[in-house]
Design brief:
The protein is of the alpha/beta class. The chain has 4 helices and 6 strands. It has helices at residues 12-23, 28-61, 86-101, 182-202, and strands spanning 71-73, 78-79, 105-106, 114-130, 136-151, 156-170. Strands 1, 2, 3, 4, 5 and 6 form a 6-stranded mixed sheet that branches. Strand 5 and strand 6 (156-170) form a beta hairpin. Helix 3 crosses helix 4. It starts with 11 loop residues before the first helix and ends with a helix. The relative contact order is 0.13.
Length: 205
Amino acid sequence: MVILLRGWMRPAGRMLYTRRTMRGLIHPPALTRITGRPTFLRRFGGLAVGLLVLGCSYSFSGSSLPSHVKTIAIPTVENETLEPGLSQEVTTGLIDAFVKDGRLKLASERQANSRLEARITGYESKVRNYDAGQNPVDYIVVLTMSLALRDQVKSRELWRDDAIQRTAVYVPGGATGGAGTEIEARAEAIAALATDVVGRTMEQW
């Protein structure tokens, strides 16, 4: 005897399952094919939408660099301050950052596809905070630079920023576990600036 549950408003898959459990009239593979199809479509539909979104995201992300730019030249950084040795420290910091990133290879100015023009426009080390007795508690290093990346193949500027600034704090004696000298703080500021330059150059690469 087959019991038809006409009064129950259930989805087709749910109804077949009810009849199968009561009488075993629906063969398991058939149930799988019938009830599994919506699940497959839902999953496939979700995957298709995901790929579509991903494709759109990729299409519009692009690259800040043209495809022919594969190498970069980093000449010695110009220094407009009176701080000795700062030019070489910044130059080394920039080179190290691009080498670590690895996506642009270093080359000479005559052979490179691009050239980074860098100029130190400001540097200072000053007291940041005082205690109640007006004694210095910590100091801050401020490094300001003007940078531009040029495409040497097309003779055009790819990006420029005339006021990139990075800072680092130091406490004499290193009581806080951070930088304890001006030299250490300066190295931190240079590293942060170099990382930013690589990011600007390789953004969405």
